Amino acid sequence: MPGSASKRTPWVSSILTMGLVLPGCSHRPREVAPPELNAGAAASAAISQYDKDGDGALRASELSSSPALTEAFGRIDADHDQAITAAELSQRMESWKQGSTLIPLTCSVTLRGKPLAGARVRLVPVEFLAKDLPVGEGVTDETGVAAISMPDEARPFADAPAGMYPGFYRVEISGPEGGREVVPDAYTGEKSSLGLELGYDSPSMQRAPQFPLK
Ligand SMILES: [Ca+2]
Ligand SMILES: [Ca+2]
Fold it and tell me: Is the dihedral of CA 4, 9, 10, 16 positive or negative?
């Protein structure tokens, strides 16, 4: 630093400090920018969709049709008053932008206690994020485990690491192709009762999600 630094007024020093910090992001090759996402608009859309009693907040009873928001409820409800406001939801989605990696995800599926092989597992973003996030998909192996990834055309660049963007997803599971559908309706298609949040501090980061179908 030049010796004249002590003569600078504080605001000049601040600007210089910012100038030193901002370009200082180290370049790591496998970083992936978070998807463009207007969290405020998405949060408003969610409130419009689910706020049945019109009080501007979402309670657990209003989210029975959203397994993803139900799973994430405690992490979204920052002040723990058992209601999710647009601000809380927006803040939660903003937190996804702090990461710079895709989230690798494997999950395991059992049907009535036995590993379900050949099952197609789809992670479908919730309606209010449908235009922002790609669908992820995987097929379970003989042990019932599937690695979920987005289609090649949705990947941010060709050699991007495998994984998914953070988000709220419904999980749709269907049985092996070509045979009779063995998976009960409660887990297939848009009416699936399964869902989760992929976030950098969500349980799916600690442990592969388990889907014990009954
Ligand atoms: Ca409400
Ligand atoms: Ca709250």
Answer: negative
Residue 140 near residue 116, CB atoms below 8 Å: yes
Looking at the structure, tell me whether residues 90 and 106 fall in a common domain: no
Q: How far is the CA of 128 from the centre of ligand 1 (A)?
A: 17
Backbone angles phi, psi at 130, to 5 degrees: -60, -35
**pTM of full prediction above 0.70:** yes
Q: How far is the CA of 59 from the centre of ligand 1 (A)?
A: 6
**CA 47 to centroid of ligand 1, rounded, Å:** 8
Q: In the beta sheet, which residues pair with residue 195?
A: 170
Is 191 part of any domain?
yes
Domain annotation covers residue 26: no
Cα 15 to ligand 2 centroid, rounded to whole Å: 37
Residues 110 and 176 in one domain: yes
Condensed to tens digits (0 to 9), the pLDDT of residues 15-74 reads 444 434 444 444 444 688 877 899 999 999 999 999 999 999 999 999 999 999 999 999
Range of the structural domain that residue 169 is part of: 101-213
User: In degrees, to the nearest 5, what angle opens at C-alpha 79 toward C-alphas 91 and 36?
Assistant: 10
Ligand nearest to the CA of 82: 2
Smallest-distance ligand from the CA of 60 = 1
How many structural domains compose the chain?
Answer: 2
Say how many Å lie between the CA of residue 48 and the centre of ligand 1.
Answer: 10
Residue 6 falls within a domain, yes or no? no
- Domain check: are 52 and 111 in the same one? no
